[in-house]
Amino acid sequence: MEKKEYIISLIPHEDEPLKTMREIASRTETYAPIVPSDTAQLLKTMLKITRPKRILEIGTAIGYSAILMAKNTPLDTEIITIERYEKVADIAINNIFEAGFEKKIRVVKGEAADIINWLDGGFDMVFMDGAKGQYIEFLPRILELLNTGGVLITDDVLYKEPNEEKNATERHRKYTIVQRLRKYLEVICNHPLLDTTVLESGEGIAISYKKG
Fold it and tell me: What phi, psi does 197 have (nearest 5°)?
């Protein structure tokens, strides 16, 4: 058994409704991808340590991560999550309602690049798991929204360009994403306001602490 497989085998089984959501997402193309189990466990641990009162998520998908965050934060924690695709957002809203977190989680439909400009600041945690190629563009505003002492968690930062992509347009698109992610990592790892570490969980996750 490889090291990563062994680590994943140590992760406890998920509670409902997260277990069912993961099973559905893995077998149905209708549903958007969700974070892998090792990333979910890392996120859960970070939430328990930091106990954020206000969270911003970019990239709701079907609501898995938002529900995970709601289950592992204080009762009065507020979670705002942004999803650009209306049909996917509607699935997330239904899943959140079924999980009983509709009063704790607010789904905002639309482009994150627009929405973050009118949001009020004061977030203790930001979880970016949306359009990977736009992370670098979101960063300046995200840092304005994030409290000093807050945590920025960025998913899929080690995303790799597939070597066997046959479609030239798609190959170019993925190459561009990889280049933008590398630029993003260089910026957050050297930013004067951030202390950052990068882990190999999932397709790579960066954890950044906002300094005073």
Answer: -130, 145
Tens-digit pLDDT string for the chain (212 aa):
677 788 888 888 888 889 888 888 877 555 567 899 999 999 999 999 999 999 999 999 999 999 999 999 999 999 999 999 999 999 999 999 999 999 999 999 999 999 999 999 899 999 999 889 999 999 999 999 999 999 999 999 998 766 665 677 777 788 889 899 999 999 999 999 999 999 998 899 999 999 98
CB 96 within 8 A of CB 27: no
C-alpha dihedral, 63 to 67 to 68 to 69, nearest 10°: 110
Q: What is the phi/psi pair of residue 188, to 5°?
A: -70, -25
Q: Which domains does the chain have, with CATH numbers?
A: 3-210 (3.40.50.150)
Contact 101, 65 (CB under 8 A): no
Going by their DSSP bridges, the two strands 123-128 and 54-58 should be labelled as parallel
Q: Which residues pair with 83 in a beta bridge?
A: 109
Structure token digits, residue 163: 């070597």
Q: Enumerate residues 6+ apart whose C-beta is below 8 A from 168.
A: none
Cut 0.85: pTM above it: yes
